[in-house]
Amino acid sequence: MASSQQTLKCFEAIPRLVLLIAAVALWCALSLASAAVLAAPPAKRPNIVVILGDDLGYADTGAFGSEIRTPSIDSLANSGVRFTNFYTHASCSPTRSMLLSGVDTHRNGLGNMDEWTAPNQRGVPGYEGHLSHGVATLPELLRDAGYHTYMVGKWHLGKAPDLIPAARGFERDFSLLDGAGSYWDMTNLSAASPQSVFTEDGRYLTRLPDDYYATKTYTDKLIGFIDANRGDGKPFFAYVAHQAPHDPYHLPREWRNRHAGAYDKGWDAVRQARLKRQVELGIVPAGTQLAEPMWTPPDPELLDPEGRALLARKMELYAGLVENFDHHIGRLVAHLKEIGEYENTVFIVFGDNGAEGTDLFRMITGTPGTPDFKFAQEHWPRRDPADWGEPGSYVAYGPMWAQVSMTPFSQFKGWLGEGGIRNSLVVSGPVVKRAPGSVNSGRMHVADIMPTLLEIAGAPYPATREGKAQPPLIGKSWSAVLAGSADSPRSAQDYLAWELFGNRAVLQGDWKLRWQYRPFGKEAWELFNLAEDPAERNDLAAAQPDKVRELTARWDDYVKANNVVLPNRSPFEPKDAKHPPPEDPGFPPLKLKRPFVPPADMLAEPKP
Q: What's the pLDDT band for 300 if we cut at 50, 70, 90?
């Protein structure tokens, strides 16, 4: 009996022993797991590459309906997400200022372009014509957060030593400081600034590399910057601000004839074909109308074959320039794959404003007898179509093809129709959790890039920097949208507003209020419902006076919050006998500024 009781007690003790052993094992496992978590290095932060096309149109890539072959951008779109409702500003330096500061142009120094600062804006804070020292820049904050910061391409935000990329947060750079110029050499566009100014790593270049071609050289330099710091464990931010496809259309010979004859059918037919592809791709809904065709270009069907071929040739060169631009993006992507950094890189690709439909060369060179006209005759003399694309030639494609680039929208660069401020946007990389190749119509803005990238990098936006209070960011982070947990960073109550050259606009929900100079505006407020009329064909101001008053109040809010000073001179002001422009020998500054002379102790030869 005693033996049985002892046996029973042993069996009763077994569960207790098992529980004790299990508890000890669980405690050890949890302890080891906690130690492993504590010992594990933090997740590697992603690299960031922002690729900017200069005057690249909404519909100029295959991913957004173009016949132009852009496999590199299309590949990024197919692995990431396309945004169809993304807004920039109407011109280059204002867009770039918001990209790099997250602050409205009238507060960050680019309330007007430096080249067109009006007399009543001179000396007003926010209208310095360069990126103000009162704003922190994206590269400054990313560098502070442990990122390498690189820039290649067009800067257009200041030339003085305290304004160049190296002074505004970029660790390495190879930059064109001017707004445009030759792709082959340092030839600029005006007699007042005959030579373009370049910097490399904070020093002003006395010459360019012997084998210089803008798009190729920018890519070569960036790849060199990345390789120089490989292996140190730090992520990088690269701002790739290509000059392409801004005019003049300079490109290597082997890229000039890839679309021979493709555009002889004329701009109207190409625009219709792009719209059809956009509907098929889901970029625009079925039933979308094209904007009314521009009335200034001739009907291509009525042109003689030679005239039509010459105009088509300009578009052929533009298409080749876009394809060359895409090719060098592909070189960068291939290199990142080769070194194992592609999968951990966020790509953001877009154009800085609408396509260029204005004849900039004629605007700058002026009339016979002027210094600029003489400069153009001497330095841009190659007008034979056989020489187009070569150094010394100046080709731009005109308003008819610009409207093709902005399919299906109205107007182009410089104006506040959708064709001036709306652009295609591609985002790809590890932060994108939406379905690969998906299309999103959430309302995005270029000023959103600053808060988005700071969040990705884990970098705060400071209340003050170097003793200066920082203006509030106007953008909204895309993190929730990229993660797939939201469709837009904005509600229907949020509004956006623009002003440039006196043209102005407000956008809230489906409604857009717009004031523009003639001929593209009425010099009165116009109202459009973009959900029903993205091409802005039907002005509803007379039928919806309450909505006009509501949005005018938003405009007044915007003016007060951002110190908007409407210019008393504009490149679009009336110039007829009934409305003669006021006399002002200092306007426009574009033609009258003295050339910038770099300090002698900051000059340098290009690096190998």
A: confident
Q: Tokens for 81?
A: 């997400």
User: What are the tokens at 373?
Assistant: 């006209």
Give 60-80 pLDDT, tens digit per residue. Answer: 999 999 999 999 999 999 999
Helix axes 305-338, 214-228, angle to 10 degrees: 10
3-state DSSP assignment of residue 503: strand
41-74 residues labelled b (16+ CB within 10 A) or e (exposed): eeeebbbbbbbbbbbbbbbbbbbbbbebbbbbbb
Average pLDDT over residues 320-333: 98
Q: Give residue for tokens 């270049």.
A: 205
Reduced to 3 states (helix: H, G, I; strand: E, B; else coil), residue 51 is strand
Mapped onto helix, strand or coil, the DSSP state of residue 419 is helix
CA distances for 460 relative to 43, 107, 138, 463, angstroms: 18, 20, 11, 9
DSSP code at position 195: B
pLDDT of 238-255, one tens digit each? 999 999 999 999 999 999
Q: Are 372 and 364 in contact (CB under 8 A)?
A: yes
Q: Given pLDDT bands bounded at 50, 70 and 90, which one contains residue 299? A: confident
CA–CA separation, 370 vs 366, rounded Å?
7
Q: Is the distance from CB of 246 to CB of 256 less than 8 angstroms?
A: no
d(CA 445, CA 87): 5
Closest CA to 402 of 267, 275, 530: 267
- The residue whose two tokens read 């997400």 is 81
**Of 89, 130, 156, 379, which residue is the catalytic one?**
156
Distance CA 498, CA 124 (A): 18
Cα 378 versus chain centre, distance: 33
Residue by residue, DSSP assigns 443-502 as: -EEGGGHHHHHHHHHT-PPPSEETTEEPPPP-----HHHHHTS-S-S--TT-EEEEEETT
Return d(Cα 169, Cα 131) in angstroms, integer.
Answer: 12
- Could you check whether the bond before residue 519 is cis, i.e. omega within 30 degrees of 0? yes
- Answer yes or no: are the C-beta atoms of 503 and 415 closer than 8 Å: yes
Query: Which residue is catalytic, options 89, 92, 130, 246?
Result: 92
Residues 275, 408 contacting (CB under 8 angstroms): yes
Question: Is-catalytic flag, 92?
Answer: yes
Q: Residue 122 is encoded by which pair of tokens?
A: 């001179």
Q: Which of 397, 520, 380, 516 is nearest to 55 (CA)?
A: 397
Taking the CA atoms of residue 477, residue 478, residue 480 and residue 483 in that order, the dihedral angle to the nearest 10 degrees is -140
Single-letter residue type at 498 = W
Q: Is pLDDT of 49 > 50?
A: yes
Tokens matching residue 69? 């072959």
Write the CB contacts of 35 (distance below 8 Å, at least 6 apart in sequence).
Answer: none
Beta bridge partners of 200: 174, 203
